[in-house]
Structure formats: structure tokens, C-alpha cells
Amino acid sequence: MKGSIGPPGPPGNPGYPGLPGPRGEVGIEGKEGPTGDPGPPGEQGPPGAQGPNGSNGSEGDTGPVGQQGLDGESKKIACLAVVDKRCYSQPFPATNWFAAEQTCVSWGGHLFSFDSAAQYQVATEVFPSQGFWIGMQRTQAGGPWRFADGTSSSTATGMWAPGEPNGNGGIVPICAWSAPWTSNTKIDDVGCYQIAAPYLCVRKLDDSVQVI
Hints:
Elements: E1 75-77, E2 81-83, E3 86-88, E4 92-95, H1 97-107, E5 110-111, H2 117-126, E6 133-138, E7 146-147, E8 174-178, E9 187-191, E10 197-199, E11 201-204, E12 209-211
Parallel strand pairs: 1-12
Antiparallel strand pairs: 2-3, 3-11, 4-10, 5-11, 6-7, 6-8, 8-9
């Protein structure tokens, strides 16, 4: 005779893990997460290329007038005589006409010129019997006589000695000097390098010159 079923026995020991199942399908993309905190600033990059020049700005207002500067010191010059605002120098030793003119330019004027009897007398008082250079010349045969400093030659050309100017055989340039055989009351023409004669220089005065 079959007996009755007895009570269940105790649970058995756990079995060994089974093999991994197959990879599941990719799930649906989740929602975007919240914005994270800003990261630290990066290092400064190199400077960029220079841009084109901007347009010129508008002109500013005119500044105030500056203070007037001090008056400059006037040039001082020693004169043997002053006639009609002309300063006549002390006499210079004999040389040719062009060397005399160069010395006078360095002195600040030109070789002796005149347009009145009073001016001419300055030289005749210094050279009463010795011929002296006159700062007048002619640079072409038959051309006009001109003073180096631009003084009118009308007075001088009215003082030629008899038979003068004779051109000295057509020499050019040709220069003027006093005629000593007339006690220097008349003038003569002679080659500019032909003789050596003493001379005076002359400078026309203005406010920039102080006579001493």
C-alpha cells in the first residue's frame, strides 16, 4: 500500500549563473540635460592682423596766438661815412675789380657805387689823387653799364673823362675806375684784371643794421 506524500525537503544550493543573454536594442535618446557651469577662461590668443587705417578726423580749432619772441640783435657795422643811408667802408688795398667785389660781398655790401655828387665825394676824399675802383661794369661790347648793387648808373655815366669809355679794344667784361689824371673828377673804363686799384665798399642801410 502506497504511503502519503511527505513534507517538502529543504531548498537546494543555488545553481551556477547562466550564460549572458544577447545585447538588447539601443534605447530611445534621453532628454537634454541642464547646462553645466562655465569652464575656466582659456589662454589669450596671438594678436590679429592690423586693420585698415581709419578715416581722418576733423580739423581741430586754431590754437591761441603765442607770445611774441624777443627782438633779435641787429647786425653792427663800422662805417667810414654814412651818406643817404649808405654805409661806406674803410679803404681796402689795391687788387683787381673782381677780387675787390668779392671782398665787399664778404663785408656785407658791394664795390663802391654812387648816384650823387655827395656820395662820390666820400671816395675822392679818401683817394684824392689815386685812381680807385668803381663798382660798375659792362659785360658785353656796347652793352649797358651797371652797378653790382643795382644803383642807377645815370650819374656815373655822365662823368666819363673826354674820349671815354673807349672799350680798350673791345675787352669784356670791362670795368670802371676813377680817372686819376683828372684828379678823380671823371671816370674811365679799363680791363677788370688789367690793373690793381684800391677801393671802398658800400652797403645800403636798413633797420637790421646798427652803425657803430
